[in-house]
Amino acid sequence: MKSIKETVKKPQRPVKILQFGEGNFLRAFVDWIVDLLNEKGDFNGNVMMIQPLKNGMGEMINDQDGLYTTVLSGIVDGKPVQEFRTITSVEGCINPFTEYEKYMAQAENPDLRFIISNTTEAGIAYHEGDKLDDKPQISYPGKVCAFLYRRYRHFNGAEDKGIIAIPCELIDKNGDNLKAIVKRYADEWGLEDGFKSWLDNACDFCNSLVDRIVPGYPRNEADKLCEELGYKDNLLDKAELFLLWVIECHGKTHEDELPTEKAGVNVIWTDDMSFYRTRKVRILNGAHTMSVLAAYQMGLNTVEECIKSPVIFPMMKRGLFEEIIPSMDGDKKQLEEYAGDVLNRFANPYIVHLCLSISLNSVSKFKTRDLPSLIGYVRKEGKLPVVLPFSLAALISFYNGTEYEGPALVGSRNGEKYLINDSPEVLEKFASLYKAEYKDAADKAGKIAHAVLSDASWWGEDLTRIEGLEKTIAGHLETIWTKGMKAAVESL
Predict the structure, then answer these.
(1) What is the pLDDT of residues 286-306, one digit of tens each?
(2) Ramachandran quadrant class, 330 (left: phi over 0; alpha: psi -120 to 50; beta: rest)
(3) Domain extents for the chain?
(4) Is residue 84 a contact partner of residue 8, using CB atoms and an 8 Å limit?
(5) Labelling 352: which of 14, 21, 103, 205 has CA 20 to 30 A away?
(6) Cα separation, 356 vs 293, whole angstroms
(7) What is the CATH topology of the domain spanning 274-353+360-398+436-490?
(8) Could you tell me the strand order of the sheet in which 204-205 lies?
(9) Strand 90-94 relative to strand 114-117: parallel, antiparallel, unpaired?
């Protein structure tokens, strides 16, 4: 069978978007949208991907000349629908750790207009010690600051060579946070006032919210799909049909340059995205993080299995309708309708969304997605919820590992290893906690619960101050470790 590169002719277009992130989500979301903009919106622009970590998918992407196929699947009017699209909007992928000058040369591209990113919730963060002459900087904002400074210098501060940044990381005010850290580096590195003014006047850091479930490579059906397509594609990317992108701009929208309405894409340009963000992050993403770590330890592997489980589904539904929604402000009926739609999307039989994929960086995800609901519930109801504290205990139990495989901790489920991926600081702390010696399960549960909950650098506050939370989580941990996850969930 011929490869996709031998089968598909790739159009030549200028690079208008620099994209930090080459993973499944951005390829089935942003790059899919750009492909539609090129076809229907006269955008005439390509994406250059930047690999944000030393190890990634850059070589695979370049081996296929940036070409790949998205497979969108779902139910429409009671009937199964599957849509294929060969994506031709990706120019290629650069690894800045091995191709630093090639990466920085993109700053001198006169056609470049957008920077888009998805470096997970942990990506938009300050890293002490990043310097302008690092090749590259460790943090994503550090890379952006150095890149934009190179562009500013090359074009002598030209106003029309500013950049529109649209981060897709699931943190509140992601664009504002990215800009604040970029400007912090500019101050630390002693960069001239003209550059800082250029950031304010020529660039726009938009806040955004993304919504599409993207399981990624459909391993179990890849051969069949390739036969249907007529070519070999090692980068097949599966996603649901639903898509929503909410972009909050400062002063004006940028739809004149990113013609999403003309292309018929579900993008909302707004000056206040707070409602959309809170609803999506706390209900859809919150339900994921609240459920999948317990489900995986119980033996389930996919979100669809969670929906079908007579043990996990009641926990998920209770957490959504009796804890997350009551913790939120807004029209309760609208929130419940959205939650019902979310559960239907989770049940999509054509989307294989792995629990382990969702587990990436769960500490920062819990802080963003579920902790606001837990705290909001306590404030409104004057008592602890049931499911949300348990989900935090399940997270602590999931991070049970002492040995490393590459950058990941190794956990064990019924004798089968799994990889725990998070920031080095998080993994090191869990490894040290699980290496320590304890008198018994109760002693272990109490001490680990205290150490995790009291770490304000993780949660933004000392969670042991929430009345009853530490004792409750310690009790859940002891149950999980002595009776098993299934019994622990059923005990709720």
Answers:
(1) 999 999 999 999 999 999 999
(2) left
(3) 4-267, 274-353+360-398+436-490
(4) no
(5) 21
(6) 8
(7) N-(1-d-carboxylethyl)-l-norvaline Dehydrogenase; domain 2 (1.10.1040)
(8) 90-94, 46-50, 15-20, 114-117, 164-167, 204-205
(9) unpaired
